Structures are given as C-alpha cells and as structure tokens.
Amino acid sequence: MTEETGKTQGLLAQAWLILLLAGLFGSSLAAVEIVLGPKIRENKRNETFGQVPRLVPGGSARKSREVVLGGIRAIRVLSEEGKHLGWVLPASGQGFADKIELLVGLDRRAGKITGLYVLDQKETPGLGDYIKDEGRFRKYFRGQPAAEPLRVVKRKPRPGSGEIKAITGATISSTSVCRIVNDAVREFRAALEKRAAGEEKE
Amino acid sequence: MAGSGPTALERFINGIIPENPVYRQLLGMCPTLAVTNGMKPALTMAGATAFVLICANVITSLIRNALKPHLRILVFTLTIATFVTIADRFLQAFMPAMSKVLGPYVPLIIVNCIIIARCEVCASKQAVGTALADALGCAIGFALGLSSIATVREILGTGCWMGMRILPEGWDNWGIMVLPPGAFLTLGLLLGLAEWFGAARKKAGRS
Asked: How far does the CA of residue B207 sit from the closest CA of chain A (Å)?
C-alpha cells in the first residue's frame, strides 16, 4: 500500500508540470475556439456560397439557400431568375493526412455531378494536394453520372463512365476524395428520393 | 555558454545576422523553401513563426526552474503546439485567403527546429528578458531570411514585389523562380553569397 502511494507520488512529482500545462493550454485553446470559431465557420460559408456559380453552372450565390434534407445539409441552387438548377452538397471524410472537406455540385435530380471543389485539405504538398487542382484532378468529376459510385483508375478515363484518373503518387488521396463523394452523393440521393416519394410530386 | 550565458543584447544581435536561423544555422528549411514564392506569404509565415517563437520562449523561460531534464522536450512541444494552433485559427478567422495559400505549412510550424532550438539553447537556461530578446532577434533573422529569398523569387518570377510591379511590363517572367526548383536555386545562390561575404569580412578583419 505504502509502496503504491510512493509510486504515485513519484509519478506526480515527475509529471505535475506537464499535467498543469496541458490543462492550462487546453482551456486557452478552448477559449480561442469559442472566440474565433463562429468567424471561421462564417468564412467557410462565404467561400461555399462563392463557389456556387462554378459548381452548378448558372447558379446564383445570392438566390441559393441552405436547406436540410433528411438530416443532410445542402444548398438548393437557384438561378438569378429563381429557377431551381441543382444542389451543392458539402461532404467530408478522412484523407491521407487529415480530414478532407469537399463541395459537390449536382444537377436538379442529383443524377449528374456538375462540379467539385476542395474546401479544406492537408494532403502532402506537391502530391496529394493536387486534389484541389482543376486541370489535374477536379475536372474528371464534372459530368459524371451520380447514380453509380465513381471508380479510381490509373489510365486515361473514358468520359462519362464514372472513371476518375488517380493522381500519380497520391492514390490514397485520390481514392479518399472518390469515397467521400460517393458516400455523400449516395446518402443525398436517398434523402431526395424519400422526399420525392413523400410528396408524390416535386 | 558557461555561467550565465550571453546577455540579452548579445542574444538579440546574434539572432539577426551572426547566427541567422536561415543563413548560418540552416534551420527552418521547410518553410524557407515552401512559402517564399511571394513576399506576402513569406511575411505571414515570418509573423506566425515570430508569434510562436516569442510566446514559446517566454513560457519556457518562466517555467525553466520547474523543468525536469528528461521531460523538457515534451514540455517544449506542448507549448509550441498550443501557440501554433492559436496562430493557425487566427489566420483562418482573419486572413482566410492567406491561410489557404499557406495550407499545411502553418500547422507545420510545430516542427520548425528554430523554435525548439531556441527553447533548448536559451529559454530553458536564461531569464525571461534574455529569452524574449533572443526570440525577437531570431524572429527578425528568420523574417530577413525568408524575405530575402522571397524578394528574389517574386521579382524574377513575376516582375512584382508585394504584388506591386517593379520590373517593366516587357519583362519575361522566369516561371521557374516561383516553382519549387526556384526555391532551391535561390537559397543555394544566396547561401553562397552570404558565405562569400562572411569569408571576405573575416579576411579583411585579420589583415
């Protein structure tokens, strides 16, 4: 018993400073997050809406509105005249290094992908971070059918076949993006179908 | 470094030129190469690093008498990581575009050896005033290193400096200078130049 107590005291004598600092630093980080968190989320929201016209051609950032469909947050994209053109779907998941946050553009019936944008990523610079590059990677998503999951290939993809060309040296980043898009699109399509079935007509 | 070590003023001056983190110690090479394709990202990186360096040095110096030798690196890393997270969140909140340009290099300040070296060499052994002077000197030295490389790369690569046009419109941009090879070329040439000047000055001082 006494030996046990002595051991615990020894450990505390060693570690008290680290425990104290961890507590102090942890609470100061929480405070920083409380102060800056809303601002950071607002920046992300502005960036998301700024991308609307590029993700869904003809979409208006001013007219489009955030909606919740079956528990999934998305942006209902309207044209300047108020015509419903499509959806922007936020999607996120684990990449190679850290969480990847994406925006997926979909047409009105969520049958076709109209664009992809990388909101946040920390993939390897010079390899995995090419996922944010339009010419090297993002262009392969535009015009792909959304009904079937996308597949990563390591050769020239056939257009409109659901094939995405992997980035050389960054297969994990490429497949991660595909997986995140597939999961989000599948869930969103299910939510959309459920709503359509409930309403009978759109 | 026997006894009480160099004074605050010596520490401050040493960090700027004689022991410049980039040109003399060759530390912090990752940001030096990665974010110097323009002055603005280079200065933002220098500012964020300065913030972390100063805070980490001051905190380390304040707790130096309570540090256990075998746990000191853990404490340094904990302190540095905290301030890096604050700097990263601050950039995301108030400079979102710049935060995107710098990408993972802001969180990577955690592994910037300049900071851990200053904690180890100076702050864990000397008083707060000296540690602060040391951090300021090194921060200025690092900013000088980054901005000198960024100046060469941005002017030759885009004809601009801080986004302002410097070279005439007819200037053919040297595209390679803003790409990764330009970073290595510039760093190598400037390092050589710094060595050459250092050697020449030493020679002049001897004769």
From this structure: 49
Q: Are B39 and B83 in contact (CB under 8 A)?
A: no
User: Helices (H), strands (E): how many in chain A?
Assistant: 2, 7
Query: By C-alpha distance, which of A72, A76, A42 is closest to A56?
Result: A76
Extents of the domains making up chain A: 53-199
Give the type of residue at A10. G
Do B89 and A32 lie within an 8 Å CB cutoff? yes
Tell me, what's the pLDDT at B172?
Answer: 86
The residue with tokens 């707060």 is B128
DSSP H/E element including B182:
helix B180-206
Structural element, H or E, at residue A187: helix A171-199
Measured distance CA(B13)–CA(B30) in Å, rounded: 24
Residue A199 has pLDDT above 80, yes or no: no
B107 touches chain A (CB under 8 A): yes
Q: Residue B82 in 3-state DSSP? A: helix
Angle of helix A2-55 relative to helix B72-94, nearest 10 degrees, comes to: 20
Give the pLDDT score at A13.
Answer: 83
The vertex-A60 CA angle with A55 and A63, nearest 5°, equals: 130
Q: Check A43 against B92: CB less than 8 A apart.
A: yes
The whole-angstrom separation of Cα A4 and Cα A7 is 5
Q: What is the mean pLDDT of residues B97-125?
A: 92
A93 - beta bridge partners?
A100
